[in-house]
Amino acid sequence: MTAGRTEVAVVGYAHSDIERTARRDLGPLTVDVVRAAITDAGLRVNQIDGYVSSSMLPSSSGRTPRDGIDIVSSSWLAQRLGGSPRYVAGFDGIGQLTGSVALAVNAVASGAADYVVMHRALHNPTGSYHGNPMREVTGPQQWTAPQGFFGPLAMIALPYNEYLQRYGATPDAMAAVVTEARKNGARIPWSYWRDRPLSVEHYLSAPPLFDPVRRYDCDIPVTGAAAFVFTSAERAADLPHPPVRVAGFANSVPTRRRLPLHWPLVDIEDSGADLVRRLEETSGISMRDVDLPQVYDGFSPFVWFWLEALGICPRGEAHRFVADGGIDSDSPGAVPALSGGGALGNGRMHGVPQMLECYLQLAGRAGDRQRAGVDVGVACHSSPHHGGAVVYSKHPH
Q1: Is the omega angle on the peptide bond into residue 212 within 30 degrees of 0, that is, cis?
Q2: Model pLDDT for residues 76-119, shown as the tens digit of each residue
Q3: Relative to the CA of 95, which of 17, 59, 119, 271 has its CA 20 to 30 Å away?
Q4: Count of the separate structural domains present in the chain
Q5: Of 11, 224, 27, which is closest to residue 117 (Cα–Cα)?
Q6: How many whole angstroms separate alpha carbon 196 and alpha carbon 194?
Q7: Is 350 strand, coil or helix?
Q8: Contacts of 241 by beta carbon, 8 Å cutoff, 6+ apart
Q9: H helix and E strand count, the chain
Q10: What is the structure's pLDDT at 128?
Q11: How many CA atoms, within 13 angstroms, populate the side-chain half-sphere of residue 89?
């Protein structure tokens, strides 16, 4: 890990309320959120000289995204906020949020910008979110889409089924994951599920969508925006909030070439192990020293996959670990892996809940939810083999 990267920190944030559908266009909402984040960091808009993001529209239903309405790119945002930014970039690759953090950190560490805003803005389009609009299929998808293997539900059902069969797990055991996420999300002021925890009985009564995936195994599509401000730890000394340093990050790349949406369990497990090895190398921090792991949960099986990738429990044991209360954030000694509610407890904000929980807890800004003795956090994003993770630290390393 380079000294420059270690000394880049998050110094402020803002988050909109999360809604099912938008009452206004995504662009103006994001502008307001970014202005609030800049103010929260004790800065002025004209001091921001860097903007980074990943502006992918997470829908497979063939819509053409409109900048400022369905997505918000870094360039669109920079033009609306004004000033003279020196660095404007968007990440397009595997691990959108991890990649965006890397852009922000590298911009500050290299001197390309002094104060960088990273935002994530999500739009929930009307109509079918993952409907298949194709009437003709070419390329690799010709081997999958005509047979009905299309979209993320089919994608996650494959390794989920494989996990159940290989390790003797049952779909009912997933209730412990989803109810934990919803319990914690119900405590978050901006969450779509605020004050609406989920019972085990309600989870089990939900209809299956793509066997064995049930309705509440999926995060709900929402509209919302969040923003974070990055600068050097040295500059942060003059700002109002304690800096939370980015100690390291790593993106994951599949170890084998596959057809689109073909996610065998072995790929997830092997690539996850490689990702964590590189994450420890870049940060200089062992996963054993992490106080606050925040695992990604866009689909509930990801929680099992990440717990095992991080070494919190052995391969094939996550379903038992969770069912035995291993991630109950209200139990002393348990691993608070979903204490921020995650995507299942907040809404489909694409890894923002994981990053935000690390920032709030390490900065001592979590209010009534503040946990004691939190010095190191790791925010995991997407799948262990198609995502990435970022290590955050309260102190220099």
Answers
A1: yes
A2: 999 999 888 999 999 987 788 999 999 999 999 999 999 999 99
A3: 17
A4: 1
A5: 11
A6: 5
A7: coil
A8: 11, 12, 40, 41, 42, 363, 365
A9: 13, 11
A10: 65
A11: 20
